Amino acid sequence: MTLIKSISGIRGTIGGKTGDNLTPVDAVKFASAYGTFLKQNSNKEKLTVVIGRDARISGPMIHNLVVNTLIGLGIDVIDLGLSTTPTVEVAVPLEKADGGIILTASHNPKQWNALKLLNDKGEFLNGADGAKILEIAESEAFDFSDVDHLGTITENDAYMDIHIDEVLNLALVDAEAVKKKKYKVVVDGVNSSGGIIIPKLLEQMGVEVVRLYCEPNGHFPHNPEPLKEHLGDICELVVKEQADFGIVVDPDVDRLAFISNDGEMFGEEYTLVAVADYVLRRTPGNTVSNMSSSRALRDITNKHNGTYEASAVGEVNVVELMKKNNAIIGGEGNGGIIYPEAHYGRDALVGVALFLTYLAGQEQSVAELRAGYPQYFMSKNKIELTPQIDVDAILKTMTAKYQQENISTVDGVKIDFAEDWVHLRKSNTEPIIRIYTEAPTQEQADKLALRIIDEIKEIAGI
């Protein structure tokens, strides 16, 4: 199945049959459901929604369908055009809008696109609201406006610059300190909107930018997920250019990865660790990441006398726990930085600006900074099962097997051992169990994963 409906939105591959893929009909259907949901939950006569998209090839088509569907529902649209996920999140409250839609499939390849849905705070919808939208979509109980009450479109292409200004105005961002360092940075924008906004931010902070794949044409030059195996070109270019470090973002600019000055990966998990280290040094407090993220954040938080908590996987879950625990920074180990002083959403611009300010105050290279953090290594695997196998029963058996250990069942099964951990999560769309492990060495992480896989197979009888 290549059309995935969830509480956070709808994503799928372009083309194919209606209901099986993200076709024009499906885009209109789910835009209609979202607009209908907003109208059902508001007493206002006129609603406004902010729309932005990444640079993927299908963007203009999906964008036109979604915008005009909202117009047909009588909803006014503020059209940001080519934008980023965090830019739309910033724009919604600034415009006092009733919601927002980002048209992006995030780190997925170019054949994918998606509608990511926001509330009036510019935050992702919670599970209950997402479920209501799915119900409305299934019922197709849409009531479109007559000709005298259609919505309007207001185009506003200033929000990338406004977003940059918002970031530069953060108290912990010091552009002047960064300018004095005369840094040179390579940027891989994966030929999407990050290729515009990240270099703009850097140049305003006095950084010399070397651009790599920064033409926003939607032709991704490599798999757009910012993982080591996809980033050979920038790793080589950082060394060739003798740059201070490299920056990689995904197509919608909510995930951030660094390349150290020696051409090695800083580590996607360590983006949040480094930025949190800086924030906690300046403003002590609590942190949150999800259960599949590195223990290194916990260690850094403890070092600064704060409290660390782990949420279920998913940005909306991280944000919910951050609010509950008054966390001053949080995010996800995939390079997602959530800094409430800016807004409650993953934001690569915030991460870049805070990291640069932190680096400017350290008399060491990026590689030396990375070497100073607790060393952990992850192994990410999955085991495919037949549809007849009861995945929930397997997870219950694993919970009972390790009941003497520190266990959480908030999101699948997370087993914390003294030196390492394993997190087991079932997929909602296919009969698989995802297996994440972390340990002080890669060998230990891989060995733990293989052991758990063998145990699951034995329980499942395969």
From TrEMBL:
Q: Which UniProt keywords apply?
A: Isomerase, Magnesium, Metal-binding, Phosphoprotein
> What EC number(s) has UniProt assigned to this enzyme?
5.4.2.10
GO CC, alphabetical: cytosol
Residue ranges annotated for the Alpha-D-phosphohexomutase C-terminal domain, each copy included: 400-454
Alpha-D-phosphohexomutase alpha/beta/alpha domain boundaries: 8-142, 164-263, 270-375
Q: Which SUPFAM superfamilies match?
A: Phosphoglucomutase, C-terminal domain (SSF55957), Phosphoglucomutase, first 3 domains (SSF53738)
Q: Per UniProt, what is one GO molecular function of this protein?
A: phosphoglucosamine mutase activity
The record's Pfam families line, in alphabetical order, gives: PGM_PMM_I, PGM_PMM_II, PGM_PMM_III, PGM_PMM_IV
Domain of life of the native organism? Bacteria
Keyword Isomerase applies:
yes
Which principal EC class is assigned to this enzyme?
A: isomerase
User: Cross-referenced Gene3D superfamilies, in alphabetical order?
Assistant: Alpha-D-Glucose-1,6-Bisphosphate, subunit A, domain 3, Alpha-D-phosphohexomutase, C-terminal domain
Essential cofactor(s): Mg(2+)
Q: Which GO terms describe its biological process?
A: carbohydrate metabolic process; peptidoglycan biosynthetic process; UDP-N-acetylglucosamine biosynthetic process
> What family is reported?
Belongs to the phosphohexose mutase family.
Name the record gives this protein: Phosphoglucosamine mutase
